[in-house]
Amino acid sequence: MSTIADNISLLDARIAHAANAVGRDPASVRLLAVSKTKPSQAVREAYAAGVRDVGENYLQEALGKQRELSDLPLIWHFIGPIQSNKTRAIAEHFDWVHSVDRLKIAQRLSEQRPAGLAPLNICLQVNVSGEASKSGCDPQDLPALARAVSALPGLRLRGLMAIPEPTDDRAAQEAAFASVRQLQQDLGLDLDTLSMGMSHDLEAAISQGATWVRIGTALFGARDYGPA
Asked: Which domains does the chain have, with CATH numbers?
């Protein structure tokens, strides 16, 4: 049975191979360990194997882990859908937010970011595949949202995040990620982050410029959501 450390070694190799295949420096792609439904001990094992960035989808679960892992210098990323009543805790307890998809949420994060903390790193989530079930702003609304968010105090707009419709077709994967990259380029802003690619499609994402790949299953194993 593979350990978390073994999985991280395999992921590092996958990332390096994918980056080298398109002439990129593997160090330009960072691994975000997505630990939703996994216990704090699993995150602790990942830290021991070199992980420093942790992504969480559910606020209360994340806050519990932050308390239990407060002895570790982890960088916390919020990557799930954001409700208005959760913005204060997110603004106070996270370093990055990858899932901002409307101005109201960004404004609340800006207002509620404590003055003593560094600006909150923001990625705008774009619904690149047009799926009704997915969060994310419509691509046509992205330029106005990006301009507005980039002007808010207490925030630093870093780039875009996307979760394209799942497919095993490598060409389709690359096309979706390429469209995200093009959307970012078309904004004409000084952005450095593309948060895209997961366990099943990280190679395609890296080929199209991903700087964060958000990995859960391939790192921690299949998730246990408990009884339905």
From this structure: 4-220 (3.20.20.10)
